[in-house]
Amino acid sequence: MTVAEPGWLRRLQLFFFPQPVASAAEFRQFVAGEAAYLAQKTVIGYCRVKTLLAFEKLMKEAIFVELMHICRWETYSLTLADTLILAEGCLRPEDSAAQARLRAALQRLYGEILAEKLPVHRPEGWGDRLEQFERRLALAGIAAPVPPEHLIRDTAALVLELAPIHTKLKRNDLEVVLGDLGFHIVALHGSMRKRFRPASLLAELAA
After folding, report:
1. 64 in a domain, yes or no?
2. CA–CA gap between residue 206 and residue 184 (Å, rounded)
3. Each residue's pLDDT tens digit in the chain (207 positions)?
4. What is the DSSP letter of 121?
């Protein structure tokens, strides 16, 4: 994956000195970077734990690298959706027309970010993911925002399905992946609440 994400030092700096996210450009960079971090951290972390000392050797095997690449990109397509759904709950205005404008902006942004790079394994594009996100966003918009850890079950299941680890070694691991991914998305929710400037973001995203 080539999606930019904050390094550890940058993340540490942002933790202690969170910078506001107040413009559409800042919002786009924020959600793309955080989604990439969630995908990268979850997929690589899980594979490292399952393969232990063999991980570095496996990373020299072309088939393992290829399957890892696919897993990370497919996971990213879902962590990006998770991140935008989470952001919708944080930004949701009271006015129904404004809510509709926000959802339209998030749907458009999801497609634009995914279209920035088309992985080799997806020559047909991201059409299925766009349709899934549209349905999911519509359903999210008519219900109260759910806790962040409730957003990620499908993403965790996909990681478990696509991780290049033998099926026998992945039995009963869904809760493990859910726990790791859940920890990070709860932290992301806290970051959104600290850094988002809803009034200016809603105005720019609607424009």
Report:
1. yes
2. 28
3. 545 555 666 656 666 667 899 999 999 999 999 999 999 999 999 999 888 888 889 989 999 999 999 999 999 999 999 999 999 999 999 999 999 999 999 999 999 999 998 999 999 999 999 999 999 999 999 999 999 999 999 999 999 999 999 888 888 899 999 999 999 999 999 999 999 999 999 999 988
4. T
**Token output for 98:** 């404004």
Instruction: Show the domain range for 103.
Output: 22-206
Residues shown for the chain: 207
> How far from each other are the two terminal CA atoms of the chain, in whole angstroms?
30
Domain presence at residue 15: no
Count how many domains the chain has.
1
The reported pTM is 0.90
What sign for the dihedral angle of Cα 31, 37, 42, 44? positive
Closest CA to 119 of 55, 39, 18, 38: 39
Please state, in angstroms and rounded to a whole number, the distance separating the CA atoms of residues 120 and 31: 23
User: Coil, strand or helix: which one is 22?
Assistant: coil
What is the C-alpha separation between 82 and 36, in angstroms, rounded? 11
